[in-house]
Amino acid sequence: MNKFLFLLLLTGLSACATKELPIPKRAESTNQVSLGIDYNDQVYYSLAEGKEVSRNERTSWDLAFESSADGYHIYLNSAKFMYVWNTGQTNMEEVTDTIGFGAGKKMEPSGGLPDSAAIGDWRNLNNVYLIDRGVTAAGSFGFVKVQFLQVTEEHYTLVFQDLSGGEIHQLTVNKDELANSTFVSLNEAGYPITVEPPKDKWDICFTQYSVEIPIPYMVTGVLTNRYQTSACLVPEGTTFEEIDLAFAQQLEFNGRMDNIGYDWKVFDLEANTYVVDVNKIYVVKTSEGFYYKIHFVDFYNELGEKGNPKWQAQRL
Q1: Buried-exposed string 50-81: b where 16+ CB fall within 10 A, e elsewhere
Q2: Taking Cα atoms as reference points, which of 27, 36, 32, 33 lies closest to residue 58?
């Protein structure tokens, strides 16, 4: 083959080679969920699928039991305005009133960090915990006395009784390795209840929860999945359009569940309405390792009903 034919063949092969194409920009989506006018529901949402995964009544459960094999943490349902007090007693019959409860009670911290759980490390104590099961507009759920007896790789064992007396109930709570927690209602004799979807199927939860700011208060906002999911408020002055993957990867994330929280909106007393701060932007890093930027644009639906958070999201 002469030099001219060789060059001609080489040029032809180069022309047939696939050219590199730029990665297309992922589409931005606008999403909305409804919690009900009285914020009755907890809504679990998948950013990857862009849809609601499940919902439940926020008052349907009392305690969440950590489900990992070595887990032992037990959490109060902060959507009910619950409190707990370690009485220091080991005989349930000796706990008959709420004297001392006001001074010693603890609320579940909204950050959701295990070491800060209101019940704390109960193992090997056999202490009686007095639990205020919270309130709703309809009234109080009352008080129960609880002793957490045992935790293994497979289950928990506890006993509980109404503060007013009556039957002492024993309950075994099985762990579920697919979930963050096993949820339990202390109604009647107690029973497990399905609340969260499997831990790898959702990213954020829309719900009411309790905070102290500085007085105890119920707020409505967003909590992240405690399973390998985290969120971060973007520094002020950065626009939604400016945030790309490189920017997101430089942010500092921590394990708090309330980094999105509730203060992306404020209540305007004069207008008697909630106003959303569209300039508050958050980046969520999911358990799959993907980054999403989100900001809220409304808290009302088309009928002007509150409790309908609306936001824009884009995967980076």
Answers
A1: eebbbbbebbbbbbbbbbbeebbbbbbbbbbb
A2: 36
Name the token pair of 85.
């007090």
Rounded to whole angstroms, the Cα distance separating 267 from 21 reads: 47
Residue 58, both tokens: 């926020």
Alpha-carbon distance 27 to 21, whole Å?
Answer: 17
Kindly state the tokens that stand for 285. Answer: 């890093």
- Torsion angles phi and psi, residue 7, rounded to 5: -65, -35
The predicted model gives 261-286 an average pLDDT of 96
The model carries a pTM of 0.90
Q: Beta strand pairing status for 291-300 and 306-315? A: antiparallel
Question: Exposure string (b/e) for 115-124, b if CB count within 10 Å is 16 or more?
Answer: eebbbeebee
Pick from 314, 149, 171, 181: which is nearest to 244 by CA?
314
With tokens 């309809």, the residue in question is 138
CA-nearest of 39, 140, 145 to 98 is 145
Residue 131 pLDDT greater than 90, yes or no: yes
Bond preceding residue 214 cis, omega within 30 of 0: yes
What token pair was written down for 239? Answer: 């626009």
Q: Distance from first CA to last CA of the chain, Å, rounded?
A: 51
DSSP output for 60-73: S-SEEEE-STT---
Contact between residue 192 and residue 212 where contact means Cβ atoms under 8 Å apart = no
* Mean pLDDT, rounded, of the chain: 92
How far apart are alpha carbons 222 and 45 in whole angstroms?
A: 10
Question: Which segments of the chain does DSSP mark as H helices, in order?
Answer: 3-16, 101-104, 245-249
